Amino acid sequence: MSDAGYDHATVERRWQEAWDDADVFRTADNVEDPTYVLGMYPYPSGKLHMGHVRNYTITDAYARFRRMQGDDVLHPMGWDAFGLPAENAAKERDTNPRDWTVDCIETMTEQMESMGFGYDWDREITTCTPDYYQWNQWLFSRFHEEGLVERRDADVNWCPHCETVLADEQVEGEAELCWRCETPVEQRELEQWFLQITEYADELLEDIDDLEGWPNSVRQMQRNWIGRQHGTELEFHVEDYGPVEAFTTRVDTIHGATFFALAPDHPISEELAEEDDEIRRFVDHEADPDGDEPNGVETGLTATNPATGEEIPVYVADFVLSDVGTGALMAVPAHDERDHAFAEKMGIDIRPVIAPEPDGDEEPTAPDVSESAYTEDGVLIDAGEYSGLDSETARERLTADIDSAEEATQYQLRDWGISRQRYWGTPIPVVHCDDCGPVMVPDEDLPVELPEFINTTGNPLDAAEEWQRTTCPECGADATRETDTMDTFVDSSWYFLRYVSPDLEDAPFDRERANDWMPVDQYVGGIEHAVMHLLYSRFFTKVLADNEGLEHREPFTDLLAQGMVQLEGEKMSKSKGNVVSPQRIVEEYGADTARLFMMQAAQPERDFDWSEEGVQSTYAFLERLQGLVEEYAAETPDGDDDAIASYVDAEIDATIAIATAEYDDLTFNKALRETQDLVRTLRQYADYTEPHAETYERGLSAVVRLLAPVAPHIAEELYDELGGDGFVAEAAWPTAEVDRDYVAKRRRLVENTREDIRDIVDVAGIEDPLGIDVVVAPEWKYDALEIAIESDADNLIGELMQEGHIREQGDAAADYGQDLQAEREALSMTLEPDAEYAALESAAWLIEREFDAPVRVVRAAEADEDVLANAEPGRPAIEIDD
Ligand SMILES: [Zn+2]
Ligand SMILES: [Zn+2]
């Protein structure tokens, strides 16, 4: 593949070394408020995949663009280095997670360097080093001091054969089998550590509105995840047990409540299970909250509806969750889909009490709820004194009237369980003392370092007996260390702050610098992190703002969720065997080709298909560009500063202005299309005539700089060839001001004209045209077009005829008026007649070049009447002499 003209391997290596030697991408500690560009740091799993390459090309291109615009830029990289896969890999390979992780990091670092990503490697962080994870422990203690840490029972996966706790990822398939021994996994209650993110639920929800630089989809996912609901809390009296609290958002439907449901782990359910085998079996084995359909068992008890006094049956049902709301609910099958499904299955009454709002004075009629529930608001029916009220009023009245009822807010969001029963994570800095209970490890004893890895079936920390043995920080008695480690999402919830001062020894981050440098201006990563990582990071930032003097309450100003790189419409994956290796592409075509192909293939948010032909044509483009620059450098042209040069000049300005705006929006594909179009124009220019040196050089120089963020190595090479000083990576971004609307009209005019000529030549079978006249429309047609666009009159022709100078055109005006009327919806403004004439004049060389015939641009005043009939604004008449 490598042609004599473009030795990508040599070129790329040379510039990577040169950037490195000159510290081009280093951000000094004393810069003020740099533009902070960040890609989500990778998990060091072995090798970079195409998703990584795309993610980091986006941030690198944007960081380079901002740097060339004159910004100080912070663009760091690090490693999300803890996690179960390293532990599994170590077990399989009979090594330890640390060595395996370090190897992966080394490989991936080399690959990143070979891609030409411009990182400040002095700021590299690796979360599995004590330097880093001691601050997870320190932060855990601060959260604890603030009352944001809780220890309570929670279910864990337990393999009775291995006698160990399993992470969710170690439970396989629908049958939920142990990943090692395929024994069915059971649930066990163990004491677990939680961070109380729910304390921040309201702020996390409300501040989403201000995240205007985030995709709406991500904002909506966070809103749904937090799931705030306003409703009513009220008591139902359960026979033998007394009042039981329930939550509902639809107290207006209470007259239709036909049963009462308890979560399987509601205290009443558990008490009943002691005595009743059927309930016991359901609670212990059959209940499946994730199942497709609701299941339950009748208790034989009744509950009293506080609005009607009616006694309704009580069920234990698995669709009621104990950690959402109160773990008990009134069920209204006529107006809730899940209640409806359960009622159908159990043969429970379905009684509609809400009707759609009737038209005018009509009586409301009950909706048909035989097949499915009616879930909209409406008007109450069969609801005693409340009949006839609208849902909203009824909710207010019932909440006020029912003694035990009061307004309440409920959230879907739960506290964040961070305990993991595995080795490769941050040890939770707690010591268990028989007398004092769980005690925090004092700050001066941090970090609690991981012991050596022990290859066992269970958690290696449980097997590390010596490591566990310690003394109580409070009373000095013998004590044992906590063996749970932290969820790795703790590491990633604040890593963006560590880059600010990665070597700081007495705090997780330099407060003053963080206040200046944060928030991250542009964050880029996968949509799979829309909720957990991005929500936890926001939570940490708010806690740090409240307690550690951070002056920012949100970590990421602008967020881009990049799309997938696919192969034939499918996600690339090892298991499908449809993986394209970045390494092979870099070896065969070079990093610049891979980067440029990816960035021009689609807008960053969109999925796109990898295409080997696309890669090859990208490579060919870079090769041709290099040829163009080399020819220029070998012999400076000597052409005139003529109309053609002015056309090319205008195109250079337009390209610079448009590409800059597109880079600013991270729509690299559009910026690159512009740039490639300019390359084509320059090539046609040199091909058609002897170019004007200054214009041509300005064009080449603009192209090289516009490509530099995406294809940085070859851009350096060509910048050097053109005599540029220093690095293009540090060169000034080209600037130009144009009216984009004017440019769009000018280009459309030229393109339409060329297409019309092609059509005529084609249809008339003209082989060798002798001359081409391009005739601009008369001025009155421009006036008529403007009137047609602005008018909303039904009778357009009548309106046109009110204008004397149009009316006097007679039949021609009527004909054109009819044309305008027919296309009225699609009309758009064109250039003014003089501007149109000038634009066609300057582009005439392109037509001459294409059709190999002289071109005359003719003003309306100099044209024949019959030719003018075909000339329209934006669409000149064409006369071809053959
Ligand atoms: Zn097992
Ligand atoms: Zn103690």
Layout of helices and strands:
Blueprint: H1 8-21, E1 35-39, H2 50-68, E2 73-74, E3 78-79, H3 84-93, H4 97-114, E4 125-126, H5 130-145, E5 149-159, E6 164-166, E7 171-172, E8 177-178, E9 186-195, H6 201-206, H7 216-226, E10 229-238, E11 242-248, E12 259-262, H8 267-275, H9 277-286, E13 296-304, E14 311-317, E15 328-331, H10 337-346, E16 354-355, E17 379-380, H11 391-401, E18 406-410, E19 416-417, E20 419-420, E21 430-433, E22 437-440, H12 460-463, H13 465-468, E23 469-471, E24 478-481, E25 485-486, H14 488-492, H15 495-498, H16 511-517, E26 520-526, H17 532-547, E27 556-562, E28 565-567, E29 570-571, H18 582-589, H19 591-601, E30 608-609, H20 612-634, H21 643-664, H22 668-688, H23 693-707, H24 712-721, H25 740-763, E31 771-775, H26 779-790, H27 796-801, H28 804-807, H29 811-822, H30 833-851, E32 855-858, H31 865-868, E33 877-881
Parallel strand pairs: 1-2, 1-26, 3-4, 12-14, 26-27, 28-30, 31-32
Antiparallel strand pairs: 5-6, 5-9, 7-8, 9-19, 10-11, 10-13, 10-18, 12-15, 13-14, 16-17, 20-25, 21-22, 21-24, 23-24, 28-29, 31-33
Bound molecules: zinc ion (2 copies).
Protein name: Leucine--tRNA ligase
Keywords: Aminoacyl-tRNA synthetase, ATP-binding, Cytoplasm, Ligase, Nucleotide-binding, Protein biosynthesis
Region (Disordered): 286-306
